[in-house]
Amino acid sequence: MRALVLSHHYLDPAKRQKLRELAGLGWTITLALPGGSTDMDGAIRLAPVPATGSIDQPQSLKWSARALRRLLTDIRPDILHVEEEPESPAAYVAVHEALKLEIPSVVFSWQSLPRRQSFGESRRRRRTLAEVCGIIGGNQMAAHLLSEGAADVPALSLPQHGVTPPPLIERTPRPTLALACVGRLVPERGVDQLLHACGQLMGPWTLAVAGTGPEQIELEEQAQRLGLAARIRWMGPISKAQVTALWPEVDCLVVPSRSTPTWTEEYSPVLVDAMSHGVAAVVTAEGALPELVGDAGIVVRSDEDLLTALQQLIVTPRRRTELGQAARLRVLERYSGAAIARRTAEFWTEVVSRSRTPRSTVNS
User: Fold this and answer.
1) What would the pLDDT profile of 91-126 be if each residue is shown by its tens digit?
2) Residue 356: per-residue pLDDT
3) Span 156-182, mean pLDDT?
4) What is the C-alpha to C-alpha distance for residues 181 and 162, in angstroms, rounded to an integer?
5) pLDDT (tens digit per residue) in 311-330
6) Nearest to 271 by CA among 256, 258, 261
7) Which of 40, 87, 147, 215 is the most exposed place for a label (fewest CB within 10 A)?
8) If DSSP codes are grouped into helix, strand and coil, which group holds residue 62?
């Protein structure tokens, strides 16, 4: 079957692995990009679409309706897949043109919290969601928000991109629990909560904190007050390669995030990366963290829960290994590039089989 994928995200060829996987599953993929030139990227056909505006503000780009209509007419895809927020001009125009040609469309969104929108944004979002045949949220929160405007179409929670799992690392339980916390040192990341729990642990442990931010001095002072300085390594800002090199030294990644009215964990690449390396995961019940971990890690809902979880890993080294193995298996089954592509293809097939005629346009 044929799919037309529209998104500025794939201007970077390094981000096209999902599309390559979909082509390998037998789909004929055409990728509509803002600007550029007609070309091929392996099995992926690149189709430039004139767009006005700045690529630095991609959600405001105005894609040519005439060019999109011509592209849809020429290709006649079985499905249109739009990875732009539904209130964007690109999603609004593309979905509406597909509707007129009776081509079913799917729209993807990362938006996980309600936000104030202008009249134009609100109108475009409402119209777009009224005309799609399927919706994909980057997490369950995003899928729920989309469903509020498109309640009677198939819905899926699925990250935009998958990961490439590394070779299996053989891990031998060690007497000292090696913890890590990776991310910007801001209040939302909850590192102060982690330090408070560490101050009450009984038994051998160490903590590597990778990242920097406005809370670093205060956090280091907190560690001094709690008598933890000798057990903590402040690594400062580190590269992606350095993070990858850290995982063999770590038994458990702790992600103690706390949501605010305007921010939540939509997705955690660091968490998924650690899990793919067989690192046990302990996360707070915030945002998409419980969804990412599932039953392959420990989800905590209070300071007491966090302390209990870490203490358990100190006294039961085998539990660290079991959780790490479960975490890696979950990534292989759900978050690898191949898994993301497979689930996308299954969803496309469901949408196409249910209806080739999108719902009628609602009155604006």
Assistant:
1) 999 999 999 999 999 999 999 999 999 999 999 999
2) 52
3) 93
4) 22
5) 999 999 999 999 999 999 99
6) 256
7) 40
8) strand
Exposed/middle/buried for residue 343 (C-beta within 10 Å: 0-12, 13-18, 19+) = middle
**Cβ-count burial of 344 within 10 angstroms (0-12 exposed, 13-18 middle, 19+ buried)?**
buried
Q: Which residues contact 48 (CB under 8 A, 6 or more apart)?
A: 32, 33, 34, 35, 36, 37, 38
First to last CA, the chain: 33
363: exposed, middle or buried (Cβ count in 10 Å: 0-12, 13-18, 19+): exposed
The model's confidence at residue 355, banded by pLDDT at 50, 70 and 90, is confident
Residue with tokens 């949220």: 137
Assess contact for 3 and 22: CB atoms under 8 A: yes
Of 132, 74, 122, which Cα lies nearest the Cα of 99?
A: 132
Helical segments of the chain, H only: 17-24, 65-75, 89-100, 119-131, 140-147, 191-198, 216-225, 240-246, 269-276, 289-293, 303-315, 317-330, 337-354
Q: How far apart are CA 81 and CA 134, in angstroms?
A: 9
Element (H, E) at 298: strand 298-300
At 241, list the tokens.
């390669």
8-state DSSP, 263: B
Backbone angles phi, psi at 137, to 5 degrees: -100, 145
Confidence bin at 56 (pLDDT 50/70/90): confident
